[in-house]
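Re-running the complex after MR caught last week's input typo. The corrected sequence lines follow. Everything else is unchanged.
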Amino acid sequence: MVAVVAGAAVLLGGGLIAALVLTTRGSTGSHSTAPVGMAQVAAMLRNVPQNGAVLGSPKAPVTLVEFADPQCPYCGDWERTSLPTIVDKYVRPGKVRIVFNGMSFVGPDSTTALRTALAAGQQDRFWNVIALLYLNQGTENTGWVTDSLLRGIGDAIPGLDTNRMLASMNSPAVTRQLDAAAAFAQKAGVDRTPTFAVGKTDKALTLVQVSSLEPSGLEPALDAALSE
Amino acid sequence: MTDRRLRVAVAALSTIGAGITAYLTYAHVTGSTLACATGGCEIVQRSKYSELAGIPVAALGLAGYVVLGATAAFRTDLVRAAGAAFALAGFAFGGYLIYVQIALIDAFCQWCLTSDGVLALLVPLTILRLRRTV
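Corrected-run output:
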């Protein structure tokens, strides 16, 4: 009797586990590395609309443009420590929308990371990907933006089709977005990252000299734009 | 403990487990927010590990609890053996899901953990039933 029970339990439980392992692996097709910070990113972006590389309500009266390279350590600092506060105070309530203007001057890893995020933007998950990349940022140009990391990040994001994201990262549409972002940064005279520009939505933006990378470094500019 | 008491305990625990998994299934299907003290329930619920071939894992758990609860109503050898097998299988699968929460999702769902606790109690009870005929 005990042997029958044990055998049946192993078959049933083992079958369920095997089926779950196989079905979840089958969704991406190859090895992936689980990123850190999934809960943190999910909490930061909860109930905040996204459209491509834009975070926040399209009706927000003020627009903040973030010029950043996925490999730049200071951009990582800002994304990890200040962005959650800015999102809570300004973006979630619908006051400010943030446009991520990606730059890839540090090296090839920057381009790969940006392409992946822009491809995820086609599924409105740009900010999930870029935030997870910053939370898992490696040393510049060491090849840390691996396929395994990108798959892991894709798999960690609810509602994102990882295979579709990876398939479209080298698409002409993503290339056009990359080129447009680089051209916009050049036109704006951005020579370092992170750089921020603030202004009324759909009006001219002004580059902001931030006093620090703490939230308080950017808040005066946002408050001023909101009170205009 | 008599078989009668074991059956009552199995039925009560299965009802609790069914209640938890019914709530999780409802939330998964409707996409509604879970009451969650651990903050990770929605992350777990929305992860790809929350479904097996399109069926919510919570629904599989609910079906398992219904079967376990039904075994409490019968006293035949076959049914008692099925009860123990389901409890052990559920416990093993629940253990794997805990591993998934720790190692792959990096978030915890208190309801899933409570369900695992219920299964951990059901395993010895259903095994004890194998030895009781009174």
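None of the earlier attempt is carried over here. The CA atoms of residues 28 and 45 of chain B lie 6 Å apart. Chain B has a mean pLDDT of 86.
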